[in-house]
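Both lines are given unchanged directly below:

***
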Amino acid sequence: MQSDLSTSQFNLADLRQWLDEQSKQLGFDSLRVTDTELGEATEHLKEWLAQGRHGQMEYMERHAQLRSDPNLLVPGTVRVICVTMNYLSPQINFDTEWERLGQVTEAVVSIYARGRDYHKVMRNRLQDLAKCIENKIGKFGYRVFTDSAPLMEVELAKKAGLGWRGKHTLLLNRESGSTFFLGEILVDIPLPIDGEQESHCGTCQACIEVCPTQAITAPYQLDARRCISYLTIENPGAIPVEFRSAMGNRIYGCDDCQLICPWNKFAQRSELPDFAQRHGLGNAGLLELWSWTETDFEKRHEGSAIRRIGYSRWRRNLAVALGNALASGVEQDAIRSALSAALDNADPLVEEHIQWALGQH
């Protein structure tokens, strides 16, 4: 990656200011710039991996060295342009989200996943931003990323001043809480660097206390193996029995640590139609989703981040939630009938979770 330009051909400070304007026009909510030095974060990553807290996310360990230095990922990188994009659609109400967690026959899908796949939305707009830069200054070296490469996105965003790392390990800022996506452009242009923000979590422990599986083992320490988001999305195998009851009716991800966070009182709404809820995922029932065939799953999740977990994991998650509904004593006959009817055609992973679910009454 190498620019055809010398820095004398344009004013870097003016270019930096222009980037703010262009990013807003493309739908990004904030933009900051940092260098590639990650300091202590690389040691923290090594310790986290050594403790096995990444679970079966083998790619985390496989690409650990690349994560430690963006210049190894894209040679020639000297700066990282970091952006945020809010995803909270106007229909979302946090009080309603809490209420649905108590409605055991309702299916709860993490808010960020109810619209279009953010990878595609962010990547396309980052590519547009890079092309705008190219049109302004000529050819330069760059690559765009959004949760799609061995890159320590949260650490880079924190270093760039987009926010501070909350005790749940997510990025927080005072303007929009934590309900935003992150994206990056690695560039070979020596842009001015922005400063970091101070942390504003203080003595608050709400995210730690609310976690259903105690996955936040201490402030700023997350054990992915216990996290419902990991268990329902990244985990390819059986969900450990000790965490199934705590999952409740969460079938894809978990938002509890964000819902409880006081800073999300300031969460900003997104008017982008891409992030609007699709296919009734904000108010679907467990039995309704259980009735979907694999064709239904593929069709209705087309263009969605959910599709990548596949039909089997989707059914696995639903089976656990249906078992938890059985344990509460509601709709016993309908749920038992639906689960039993699915046994003959279930693959071994789903069958094991159905059998567990049928034992919950």
